[in-house]
């Protein structure tokens, strides 16, 4: 074993990473100890550095798949080698970092530094993580990724169609999914999709999975599909309505007509739902998550996936029927069309419109002397509530997922000193229009804004952050505000100055 370790270290110094991988993976599983598995992961990390994205991603992921299960054995490994805590944490962090998951990498780099205080490489990566989270310019923008993904899809869609034309689709289903995932990989770190054929065209259905932030991303991606592709393909966002759809469970069919609904209209043209299904009632106590999953599937079929995301503000599943008049789920679409949003319903499953339902909100401005950013807000509007919730709760889930794909939600902020109260909203609109005009198409989607006692806020999702910030710097230079800055929707990062207040 000592001879093997000497050879592995020599190969590592000579950049012969494939030799390391081949040698370790040839060993019997019973001989793979903590040190060897960790060395194997290091080789995958290093080998990935020689590849261009997205080809490198599977290697970094392979390193993580090897390293993360070792955490339970780390304490024992440290007793044998005190430096194991540093090397294991550093290698985990390294893989996360190059998977564009800096927020996950950072705590591991910090733990690696505890294991080897003052280590210059670790300190450098910590600094790079912090800077990237505050100003993520090092990640390839989604605008570019979209172009690359559609180019890949155009090149490979013929093979995709050939697989879909196979009589035995089940036999090639895994290959079909793998190929489509590969074609979409330049844009999406974890694509969710369905494939089909409507009798005339092939269909690629991009699934938002109930995630409103992803809905914006998919709508952007769909909008930029090459025209020459559309002769053979329908590119759809979200599952469409399907009349007569049903699920089968425990030998019985469950359809939309089996679900009772008590619906109420909510503010901002939404709907709140209470539902009861007698056939699912026995499952309520055994597996509530499964019941909700089945109800959501039926709801998506009854309204269309995007319409369900657009209109449904809350959904409760009841253990017993409620009082008052109800309808069956298959009648819910008629209720929404007639009572909730008659004007908007015909385009309710349009992905661009589904992401444009704005919600007004209010706040109680902080009375603290040193208040955090946005704590002065007393009124605002947004069409992407999850980003605001995540920001105030310090939850970076949506930011992390979008960051991997080069999408950057954020906001501009600027002082309102000297701005008449009647002109605050006009100023925000003027800034939005000027920045949009300066950027050009395909760079940013504005999602709302807010007014505080001290600051104004303009919210957006950037598809190409560098281009957006360059445009914003020019616009704010001529704007009637003393200074301006940019901030991502991460609570615990710093803002980035775009215009500095001049000294008098």
Q: Which descriptors apply to this entry?
A:
504 residues, 18% strand, 16 strands, 4-stranded mixed sheet, 7-stranded antiparallel sheet, alpha+beta
Description:
This protein is α+β, with helices and mostly antiparallel strands and 504 residues long. It has helices at 2-13, 17-25, 34-48, 57-67, 74-80, 84-98, 102-115, 120-134, 142-164, 169-184, 212-223, 288-303, 305-311, 332-340, 351-354, 385-393, 397-403, 424-439, 465-477, and strands spanning 193-197, 202-206, 233-237, 246-249, 252-255, 259-266, 270-277, 312-317, 327-328, 359-362, 377-382, 408-415, 444-452, 455-462, 484-488, 496-499. Helix 2 (17-25) runs antiparallel to helix 3 (34-48), helix 7 (102-115) runs antiparallel to helix 8 (120-134) and helix 9 packs antiparallel against helix 10 (169-184).
Distance between the first and last residues' Cα: 71 Å
Number of helices: 19
Number of strands: 16
- Rg on CA atoms, Å: 26 Å
Q: Average pLDDT across residues?
A: 92
Q: Which of globular, elongated, flat, extended, rod-shaped describes the shape?
A: globular
Short description:
With 504 residues, the chain is of the alpha+beta class. The chain is built from 19 helices and 16 strands. Strand 13 and strand 14 form a beta hairpin.
What is the secondary structure topology, with strand pairs?
Blueprint: H1 2-13, H2 17-25, H3 34-48, H4 57-67, H5 74-80, H6 84-98, H7 102-115, H8 120-134, H9 142-164, H10 169-184, E1 193-197, E2 202-206, H11 212-223, E3 233-237, E4 246-249, E5 252-255, E6 259-266, E7 270-277, H12 288-303, H13 305-311, E8 312-317, E9 327-328, H14 332-340, H15 351-354, E10 359-362, E11 377-382, H16 385-393, H17 397-403, E12 408-415, H18 424-439, E13 444-452, E14 455-462, H19 465-477, E15 484-488, E16 496-499
Helix pairs in contact: 2-3, 3-4, 3-6, 4-6, 6-7, 7-8, 9-10, 12-13, 18-19
């Amino acid at each position: 074993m000592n001879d093997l370790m000497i050879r592995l270290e020599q190969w590592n110094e000579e950049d012969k990473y494939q030799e390391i991988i081949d040698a370790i993976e040839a060993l019997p599983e019973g001989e793979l100890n903590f040190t060897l598995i960790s060395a194997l992961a290091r080789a995958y990390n290093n080998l990935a550095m020689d590849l261009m994205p997205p080809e490198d991603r599977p290697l970094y992921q392979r390193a993580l798949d090897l390293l993360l299960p070792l955490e339970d054995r780390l304490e024992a490994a440290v007793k044998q080698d005190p430096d194991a805590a540093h090397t294991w944490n550093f290698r985990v962090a390294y893989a996360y970092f190059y998977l564009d998951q800096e927020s996950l990498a950072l705590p591991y780099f910090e733990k690696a530094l505890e294991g080897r205080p003052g280590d210059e490489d670790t300190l450098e990566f910590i600094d790079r993580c912090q800077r990237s989270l505050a100003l993520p310019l090092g990640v390839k923008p989604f605008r570019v990724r979209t172009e690359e993904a559609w180019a890949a899809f155009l090149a490979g869609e013929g093979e995709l169609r050939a697989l879909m034309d196979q009589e035995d689709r089940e036999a090639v289903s895994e290959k079909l999914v793998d190929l489509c995932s590969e074609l979409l990989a330049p844009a999406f770190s974890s694509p969710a999709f369905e494939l089909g054929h409507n009798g005339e065209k092939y269909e690629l259905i991009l699934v938002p999975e109930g995630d409103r932030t992803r809905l914006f991303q998919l709508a952007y991606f769909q909008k930029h599909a090459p025209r020459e592709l559309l002769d053979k393909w329908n590119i759809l966002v979200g599952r469409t309505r399907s009349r007569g759809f049903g699920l089968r469970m425990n030998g019985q069919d469950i359809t939309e007509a089996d679900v009772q609904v008590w619906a109420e209209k909510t503010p901002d043209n939404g709907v709140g739902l209470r539902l009861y299904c007698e056939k699912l009632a026995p499952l309520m106590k055994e597996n509530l998550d499964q019941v909700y999953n089945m109800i959501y599937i039926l709801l998506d079929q009854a309204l269309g996936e995007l319409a369900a995301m657009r209109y449904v503000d809350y959904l409760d599943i009841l253990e017993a029927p409620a009082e008052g008049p109800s309808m069956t789920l298959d009648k819910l679409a008629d209720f929404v069309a007639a009572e909730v949003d008659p004007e908007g319903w015909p385009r309710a499953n349009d992905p661009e419109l589904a992401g444009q339902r704005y919600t007004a909100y209010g706040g109680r401005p902080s009375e603290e002397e040193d208040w955090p950013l946005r704590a002065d807000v007393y009124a605002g509007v947004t069409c992407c509530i999850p980003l605001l919730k995540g920001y105030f709760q310090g939850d970076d889930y949506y930011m992390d997922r979008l960051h991997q794909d080069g999408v950057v939600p954020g906001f501009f902020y600027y002082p309102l000193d000297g701005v008449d109260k009647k002109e605050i909203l006009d100023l925000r609109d003027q800034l939005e229009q000027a920045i949009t005009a300066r950027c050009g198409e395909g760079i940013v989607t504005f999602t709302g804004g807010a007014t505080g006692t001290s600051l104004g806020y303009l919210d957006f999702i950037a598809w190409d952050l560098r281009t957006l910030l360059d445009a914003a710097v020019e616009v704010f230079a001529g704007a009637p505000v003393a200074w301006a800055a940019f901030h991502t929707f991460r609570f615990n990062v710093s803002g980035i100055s775009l215009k500095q207040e001049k000294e008098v």
